[in-house]
Amino acid sequence: MTGFSTVAADVPGVKIVTEIAAFHELVVSNARPELITDKAVWAEGPVCTPEGLFIFSDVKQNRVMSWSEQQGLKVWLEPSDYQNGHSVDNNGRIIAASHGRRAVLRQEHDGTWTTLVDSWQGKRLNSPNDVTVAPDGAIWFSDPTFGVLSKEESYGGKPEQTGEYVYRYDPSSRSLSRADTPEVHSPNGLAFSPDGKTLYVSDTQLAHDFSNKKLAHRIVAYRIDGTRLTTGHVFAEVTPGIPDGITTDEKGNVWSSSKEGVQVFSEQGERLGRILVPSRDTGNLALCSGADGRKWLYVTAANLVLRLPVKVSAAAGSLTGK
Predict the structure, then answer these.
(1) Of 194, 109, 126, whose CA–CA distance to 166 is shortest?
(2) 21: phi then psi, degrees, rounded to nearest 5
(3) Helix %, strand %, coil % for the chain, to 5?
(4) The model's pTM
(5) What is the pLDDT of residues 276-288, one digit of tens each?
(6) Which residues are CB-neighbours of 283 under 8 A, at least 6 positions away?
């Protein structure tokens, strides 16, 4: 673990930009950002566990890291089969999207990993990227081709599916269904509204070719109708960059990564403000509450992983790392 900080330290260069007054109700204007590490290669998949650990994927180093104020920074899983996104199910188990296994995995209480799903209609999945758990316990995940097409973020391979899709897996019946999301080209981040009736899906088509500005870089909102998604509409455009990872807070606001840091939108899709991060890109974020009641925003931004205090908690059931 040489080169990794074990105690959070100040990180200069973070700037909070308020665009709508309501942003003051979400962030601490004089927040003291804390650096967890600046030695990651590509940090992703942040989530806080029921045991009080913060974990994140260092995808290109094929490992998952853990951090807490008491334990510092440690290797949590290596090799990780290039895990990316993480979530926590209703029984407190970690759910992981694995590029390397081309599967969605679950860590059992004894520490072993179970493959929940790795194929659709007899063909391998692309490279599950993000995962979130619905109030009813169903596991929703995105399956773009970013991982499988990158030998730095997977074991390599060829896509077998006809496109990039969102899926719903029901652990109780062990059944998998593919969602109908014609408004989304390359699904990535996923997050539920506080009432569980809306699923937000980030469309990161632009990441396939950043020179083509006509490609999608937006968040699409869908209503939940039983096990289906309906009435999709564009919720917000995110620029610069893409809305790679997204999450929601208890008030219904949507927090999104972008190239410059974090952007926060109201339930109506109005941008409230931004948190600028001194990194070449920001990939993901997570809202977590500590045992002491303090509320934090954790951010994974390429080589940087940091946190800063906020005033809101994650939406119920939104303990995800997209």
Answers:
(1) 126
(2) -55, -30
(3) 5, 45, 50
(4) 0.95
(5) 999 999 999 999 9
(6) 42, 43, 44, 244, 245, 257, 300, 301, 302
